[in-house]
TrEMBL record:
GO terms for molecular function: glycosyltransferase activity. It comes from Actinoplanes digitatis. It holds the Pfam family Glyco_transf_4. Keywords: Glycosyltransferase, Transferase. Residues 29-107 form the Glycosyltransferase subfamily 4-like N-terminal domain. InterPro entries: Glyco_trans_4-like_N (IPR028098). This is UDP-N-acetylglucosamine:LPS N-acetylglucosamine transferase.
Length: 153
C-alpha cells in the first residue's frame, strides 16, 4: 500500500484547471485540498471538494505578490501539505514562494497549449519548483529540468 500524501492543488480556471483535473488518476489516491480562482468552471468542477477560493493575482504586479505570499504562508501552515501542484497562473506564484520558504516541494505542470515562451507566472514557478512536468517533447529543449509525462488528454 502506498503512502497517502496531503496534496494542495493550485488552479485558476480554463485549461489550467483541465490539466490538473486530468491528473485525477494520481491525486484521487491522496488527501487533496484545492486553492482556486472562483469562476463558473472552477465552481462546477470542484463542487463537493475542499476549496480555498482566492482572487487571481497577476505575477507582473510584484507588489501584490507580497500579500498573496503572506496569505499562502498562512494557508500552508494550516493545511500542511506534503506537495503542491499547479499548472498556473498568477495565483500559483505566492504559493510556490511560500512553499519554498517552508521547504514544501512543488510541482509545476506545463499546460498542453504551451508552445512558446512561458508567461511571468510560469517563469517564476518553474524556477521554484522541485520538478517541472511537460506534456510535449519539444518543451524539453527549452526547459532543461523538465520531465516528459506525455499528453494528459
Amino acid at each position: 500500500m502506498s503512502r497517502r500524501y496531503r496534496v494542495l492543488m493550485v488552479s485558476s480556471s480554463g485549461g489550467v484547471l483541465l490539466d490538473l483535473l486530468a491528473l485525477r488518476p494520481w491525486w484521487s489516491g491522496h488527501d487533496v485540498v484545492w486553492v482556486a480562482v472562483r469562476a463558473p468552471d472552477t465552481e462546477i468542477a470542484l463542487a463537493g471538494r475542499r476549496v480555498h477560493w482566492r482572487p487571481e493575482v497577476f505575477a507582473s504586479t510584484r507588489l501584490r505578490l507580497v500579500p498573496a505570499t503572506w496569505r499562502a504562508l498562512r494557508l500552508l501552515r494550516a493545511e500542511r501539505p506534503d506537495v503542491i501542484v499547479s499548472a498556473g497562473t498568477g495565483v500559483a506564484v505566492g504559493f510556490f514562494l511560500a512553499a519554498r520558504l517552508l521547504r514544501v516541494p512543488s510541482l509545476w505542470l506545463e499546460t498542453l497549449n504551451m508552445t512558446g515562451r512561458a508567461g511571468v507566472a510560469a517563469r517564476i514557478c518553474t524556477r521554484l519548483a522541485a520538478a517541472v512536468l511537460v506534456q510535449r517533447p519539444a518543451l524539453l529543449k527549452t526547459r532543461p529540468r523538465a520531465v516528459l509525462i506525455g499528453e494528459l488528454y
